[in-house]
From TrEMBL:
Protein name: F-box associated beta-propeller type 3 domain-containing protein
A Pfam short name: FBA_3
Domain spans labelled F-box associated beta-propeller type: 3-52
Top-rank taxon: Eukaryota
InterPro entries: F-box-assoc_dom_typ3 (IPR013187)
């Protein structure tokens, strides 16, 4: 895990630097220093097929990079 910086709400964002194994969910953590609350968000469905891994020549470990400022809301779904 590494801190990717802060988002617009002031939360410190922690995320993995690598994704191991195919079709494995992973977590991103948001820590609010004012309230001392931590939120854990489960991410799944990213690069989760053998076809994806084969097409892009990925091996057992994939490096990951996250942008703390980008977030889509699913509230409208």
């Amino acid at each position: 895990m590494i801190s990717q910086g802060t988002n617009k709400a002031g939360d410190i964002v922690f995320s993995p630097t690598t994704l191991t194994g195919r079709a494995q969910p992973f977590y991103v953590f948001y820590f609010n220093p004012d309230t001392k609350n931590i939120r854990r968000v489960r991410i799944h469905g990213v690069a989760d097929t053998e076809e994806f891994w084969s097409r892009y020549g990925l091996t057992d470990v994939c490096r990951a990079s996250f942008s703390p400022q980008h977030a889509d809301s699913i509230a409208s779904l």
